[in-house]
Design goal:
The structure is a single chain. With 683 residues, this protein is of the alpha+beta class. Helix content is 27%, strand content 20%. It contains 15 helices and 30 strands. It has a nine-stranded antiparallel beta sheet. A hairpin with a 4-residue loop joins β10 and β11. The chain is globular.
Length: 683
Amino acid sequence: MTISNFALFALASLATATSIDRERVVGQFNPVRHASSNSTPMQVGNGNFAFGADITGLQTFQPFAIMSSWGWHNFSLPTAPGQSKISDFTGLDWWTHGKLVNYNQPNPTEPLISNWLIQNPQRVNLGRIGFWFEDSNITEAGLSAKSQTLDLYSGIITSEFTVLGSKVKVKTSSDPDSDTVSIQVDSGLIHSGQLGIFFDYPYPIAQKFDAPFVGIWNVTSKHTTALQHSGNRAQITHDIDTTTYYTSIEWQGKGSISGPLPSSHRYILRPASKMGDYLDLSVNFAPKPTNSIPSPKEISRSSTKWWSSYWESGGFIDLTRVKSTNATELQRRIILSQYLLAVNEAGRDPPQESGLVNNGWYGKFHMEMIFNRAIPGVYDRFLASSLDRARDMGWKGAKWGKMSDSTGRSAPGEINSLLIWQQPHPFYFAELEYRAFPTRQTLRKWDEVLTRSAEFMADFAWWNETAGHYDLGPPMYPVSENTNPNATINPTFELAYWNFGLSIASLWKTRQNLPVPNTWTHVNSNFAPLPVTNGTYAVYQDIPNMWIDPNTYYDHPAMTGICGLLPPSPSFNLTIMKATAAKVRSIWNFKNLFGWDFPMLAMNAARLGDSELSVEYLLDGLFAFDDVGMPIGGVRVPTPYFPSSGGLLLAVALMAGGWDGCGGESRWPAGWDVRVEGFEKAL
């Protein structure tokens, strides 16, 4: 199935004998709404495809998105001489340890092709499906008795409202195996001919953040649609420049579809009056014409079966026996995050940070953001382009990109090209998979990716003859992305993560009875020491005015990640870490944190033995989730921001399963009666 590769999280085992009544726990947190949100939909989906609904169960009054893994669009290339082809882009050269290295950065002399590469491709909103009313003046204010519930255990949204004196009941669900949405409508307005379904299509825009709605609807001349229909089936072809995709619609019984309406791309499906009070239809979106579409009833059954299986497998946390509003809210966040990550973040590609809700960073995904990643096979697919990237820059091995599209191409950018903390990620994923599946097959599966990753990491580290150790940078950006790249050298988190990665690389070879390259061993044994300022870990070595200049305690407090997200390295000092955590707690600019920073702090607190503080971080007022579980973006990014959800699950999984070397003591606040099952220990 499309989302069957997605588990609760990497720390949870895939097969679990359950004793917790999971359906009872999950059912307590079914989201309920009585009006549309202006910013977030209720969703159904399968990780590669998602449909966002307003209060009607469709997109009648709010144009929420229908998005997919495959739906991308490129605007036409510039036509200016010397900037009309991708190969015309030359990037910028930076001095790097005595030699010029070409970095994938916008070139001021090539602004058109530089910007085109940043802005293209964009993820496409595939369309909009809503109710057509014979009375065209109907608004949401004209509806009464509005109620909407998402049944998490079946993945079905049930929406009810009254309009024009009649009740309308709608069930919306998504097929687990295809990009198809099921719509089942029950209303007397169908029999009277006053209610139908519309289909509409937007045009994409080159906008970094396209939220809460994706695309524009008033430039109909820039794209085309065409209708073909026969019997109870129709197909709408949508052409946007060189992008073409198809909407296949199949309904039960008789009806007619027509359009587009004048000056629009809106089509109307009107059921025949003989159909009675029911209208059931399936709507599929695909890059090629589709001949077979599952029926609404088949989709509803498949959705129920898949979601039930999803909830009954993998790890699970039950906080419902804890008599605390904090525990109840934490449980709500956990359950809804599990649902939304499966809908938005469990597809073929690493997901963008706003999932399949709206577009951020043009719909591209960030390879450094590991918290919300379920990415089977993506490193294999991107290996060739990553080998090319390293070779073109004069390094060995594979250099992974940052802000990437589905081909593995990384967008130009100073931060994009100088950030390095995504490089050890494959080792993190591989080791977690090996713990769940300790087989030779797992070792062989990851060996090429890990070998090429380690080759780059060892080659990138620079031997400092004077100091007698290996340096990371300059130039580089650390996790916080807010330092001078030409002054940034040996950042705390990156040093620890580089050590972790190369250690796993060596262990991987040893497990296979293969020799460990001497270079890996020499580099990993001779890294610069973790930088310390006044008894605390610093952002990077010799950073000016650490803890004095506000810029040094702003953005991601990544130093805490070396004992939390990561297991402590051999050079780790517990006294210095505790002092660092206390300093961060007392002085850091929390108002400008990104969502995933709070789980990172919670994991640090958990490893340091402060479970009360862990929960406090996970329930911080600045770390917010809305009524349907969408993580609030905050002051830095739009809503939703799914690294928050992924980080939350990673933090509670750490607390539930423990980690290597932890004792048997509770990792939850005193007095909390917590039941957990299906978890592996963290690294």
